[in-house]
Amino acid sequence: MKLKDMPRAELEILSYTDLTYMLLKENKKPMNTPSIFREICNLLGYTDDEYASRIGDYYTSLTIDKRFVLLDNAEWDVRDHHSVELVLDEEDDEDSIEEETEEEEDSIEEETEEEDIDAIIEDDDLDDGDDDLEDLSLVDEDDMEEESE
Asked: At residue 72, what are phi and psi to the nearest 5 degrees?
């Protein structure tokens, strides 16, 4: 049923965004905010003052509703009428694959290094009975200065 044929009582039950959706579907063409809301106000019998006081909230409701898309020419349309085409450049695609492969290799190298360090630490912790401190000797600062001269 077309909006113009609907009884006013049924129109008043619908939200502005529902009315907008139906209006854009019927017209099958994009429209700007004032034009859409003017038609809605005419259907609901609103005065010019009511139009002026409510158009700001109406615009906000359109921006929030995911059923609509704002086009470059400042007109609204139903999102279903528009598709997004993703174009991948072959070079970009190859670069991203190479980056992912490099990241995976770096991650594997880091894990291997951590495992090697853990193994070295475990080996050093083993006490084989030798006291490592026995081979150390103390040197005075004076002796160090004499050696450097």
From this structure: -60, -30
Measure the CA–CA gap between 78 and 70, rounded to whole angstroms.
9
Residue 67 contacts residue 78 (beta carbons within 8 Å): yes
The share of the chain scoring above pLDDT 90, in percent, equals: 21
Answering whether pTM is above 0.70, one says no
Distance (Å, rounded) from C-alpha 59 to C-alpha 52? 12
Task: Give 42-56 pLDDT, tens digit per residue.
Answer: 999 999 999 999 999
Distance CA 7, CA 43 (A): 9
Torsion of CA 117, 120, 124, 127, to 10 degrees: 130
Torsion on CA atoms 50, 52, 55, 57, rounded to nearest 10: -70
